[in-house]
Design brief:
The chain is of the alpha/beta class. It has helices at about 20-25, 30-35, 50-65, 85-95, 125-135, 155-160, 200-205, 215-225, 245; strands at about 40-45, 75-80, 105, 110-115, 115, 150, 170, 210-215, 235-240, 255-260.
Length: about 260
């Protein structure tokens, strides 16, 4: 039986094309039931307050970077959204006097417009947010070299090469959007070979770092959360590392889902 059309954007695959009973079952999940979904390699953690959640996000940066040495450099891949953890990261580094000279950071994605990544002067630039909210707030004597900051560009060659340069990515953080994407790996449009069926998990998992066309719901969400409600300000695509590069050899295998109670 063919999958139904999306009730949000009929030209796209999204969660509303799933079986109705599956959607109803997901909607019935309570925090207590969500905790019971934990299993080997997949942990669900629920915090009582947003402040605890943001601190937990920030501590993942610190834990990853404390493992880094000149001989065995370590980094973390982080998103923009949320951003409240980023100033906490800088403050923790400064208070702990954590030397980041050997540490690395990968920006998870960047807006893509008119055939190239948006410049850091763009009001929604992720690189700009990472630098202003975190890295520029870290003491100069503690900061990692600028060459250790890896942000995706329209020409993805250098960014993709950085994953295979002998640096271990200890943690990748990511968030779930309104369209139920994970870390802006949006569902695909219904076109080409996926006109009548969505990609299988295996096919999706083999996608490399690439330009991702954003689902209309994702564009509306970013206009609401970051663009002051101005949908015209939000680019319709992002540069996004694929699963193959998000989970390189040596990266922590466990997945931890962080949520806030209520």
């Amino acid at each position: 039986m063919p999958r139904k059309l999306s009730s949000i954007a009929p030209d796209w695959w999204d969660y509303t094309t799933l079986d109705d009973e599956l959607i109803r079952a997901a909607a019935r999940l309570t925090p207590e039931k969500m905790l019971k979904l934990s299993r080997p390699g997949f942990q669900v953690v629920i915090y009582d307050t947003l402040e605890e959640f943001y601190l937990a996000e920030a501590l993942e940066y610190i834990t990853a970077w404390r493992q880094s040495t000149e001989d065995n450099p370590v980094g973390i891949c982080g998103p923009i959204g949320p951003t409240e953890q980023l100033p906490l990261v800088a403050r923790l580094v400064n208070e702990l006097k954590l030397n980041l000279k050997s540490a690395h950071f990968w920006g998870m994605d960047e807006w893509y417009h008119d055939g190239k990544e948006v410049p850091v002067t763009h009001p929604l630039s992720f690189e700009r947010a990472d630098r202003e909210l975190c890295f520029h707030r870290i003491g100069k004597e503690l900061r990692m070299p600028d060459s250790h900051l890896h942000f995706p560009k329209a020409d993805t060659t250098e960014y993709r090469r950085s994953w295979d340069a002998g640096v271990r990515c200890a943690v990748m953080q990511g968030g779930q959007g309104d369209v139920k994407h994970w870390a802006f790996n949006d569902p695909l449009p219904r076109e080409g070979e996926y006109k009548n069926r969505p990609p299988s998990p295996g096919e999706y998992g083999r996608l490399p770092t690439r330009v991702v066309d954003l689902h209309p719901l994702t564009i509306a969400q970013n206009a609401r959360t970051s663009g002051g409600g101005n949908i015209a300000l939000v680019p319709s695509a992002r540069l996004k590392p694929g699963r193959r590069k998000r989970f390189p050899s040596g990266m922590r295998a466990n997945t931890t889902i962080h949520s806030v109670n209520g």
